[in-house]
Amino acid sequence: MFSKSSVWRHFDIWLLAAVLLLTAYGVLMIRSAVTGSPAYEGFPRQQIIWAIVGIIIMFIFAGIDYRYLTSAHWYIYGGLVALLLFVIVGGQVNNDARRWIQVTSSFQIQPSEFGRIFLAITFAQFLAIRRDRIYKFNNTISTLIYIGIPIGLIFLQPDLGMSMLFIIIWFVEIWLAGLPLKHFGILAAIGIVVIGLAYPNLADYQKERITTFVDPGAADPDDVFNVDQAEISIGSGGYWGKGYMQGTQSQLGFLRVQHTDFIFSVIVEEMGLFFGAFVVLGLISFILMRILRVAALTPDPAGKYMTAGIAMILFFQTAVNVGMNIRILPVTGLTLPFVSYGGSSMTTLFIAIGVVQSVLMRHRKQEFG
């Protein structure tokens, strides 16, 4: 039993339980998704290993006072920028994108995955120490420069989905910090101009994803094939699904990248609306509520901003991933949190949960350590 003086008495066991249930569900669905694909047969076991590593890391980060992280925010930010620069110079190229650092012959890391979590932490502190300047437009410009450097480096990889996610982190945290509405208006106008300038510089496959979404009828059939298969998978699943490992689109190889980007389609086809979509989205909704509860409880501005930022990361990734599976959003490559296959994604999400737990465990001002 934890003593009354122990910060661990505030540990949110319900949040941990929901995350573990969602992760276990994801492993089961990855196993189904890669059945019949010899090259991928080791993925479920690897995902379990990453989950175990993630859980250990989560407890480590929960045990560390998050204020040690905020006090070192410039060092963390500098390290992130350095890693993103290294990716541009000497990163590993996969599928026409340079996003990974090859650590060993069989192990890669994606710095932008780690960056989304650590940027939520460092930017929260950046805003917290400038609360008295939030109404000054030059401070707003400073925040844009702060966030713009990593976004620019990620855009060059190229990774449009992750670039958008970083912008969302900026928006949520600066909105919570109290940015004046007129500043948002000015920035919206600037944003439209930036989008117009950025579009011609997108990679060809990124332009194809956007044009396929806007006008699927005029798109190359090969470009819309997987989106069509995802739509068929979800539509054929119905309320109850076809049964575990019984999906035709995934099991017969019609659906591509079914263990990452399009795992939601596999879930709905095999488990249906009730035991598939409702279970996954219900667990994610519960996780979001528990994280937002922490943001409401903590009196520390930096703690409030970072937990809200982490909640938005999970929400945005879920919304975009589900949206592209049901064809209401273009394909961006953002994965379904705790469900899609991926080591960098899994471990960084557990880091995020550990940081949230750390904030909760120390939400009383007098408790440090």
What does this structure look like?
The structure is a single chain. This protein is mainly alpha-helical. It has one domain (7-361). It has helices spanning 13-33, 43-63, 66-71, 73-90, 111-128, 137-155, 160-176, 181-198, 204-214, 221-237, 248-251, 263-297, 301-325, 343-361; strands spanning 92-94, 97-104, 107-109. A three-stranded antiparallel β-sheet has the order 1-2-3. α1 (13-33) packs antiparallel against α2 (43-63) and α1 (13-33) packs antiparallel against α12 (263-297). It is globular, with a radius of gyration of 21 Å. The two termini are 18 Å apart. The model has no long low-confidence stretch (mean pLDDT 87).
What distinguishing features does this structure have?
three-stranded antiparallel β-sheet, single chain
Q: Find the structural class using helix and strand composition.
A: mainly alpha
State the helix count: 14
Shape: globular
Low-confidence stretches: none
* Beginning-to-end CA distance, first to last residue: 18 Å
Helix fraction?
55-70%
Number of strands: 3
Arithmetic mean pLDDT: 87
Domain unit count: 1
User: How are helices and strands ordered from N to C?
Assistant: HHHHEEEHHHHHHHHHH
The oligomeric state of the chains shown is single chain
Spatial extent as radius of gyration: 21 Å
* Sheet of most strands: 3 strands, antiparallel
- Which strand-content bin applies to the residues? under 5%
The spatial strand order of the largest sheet comes to 1-2-3
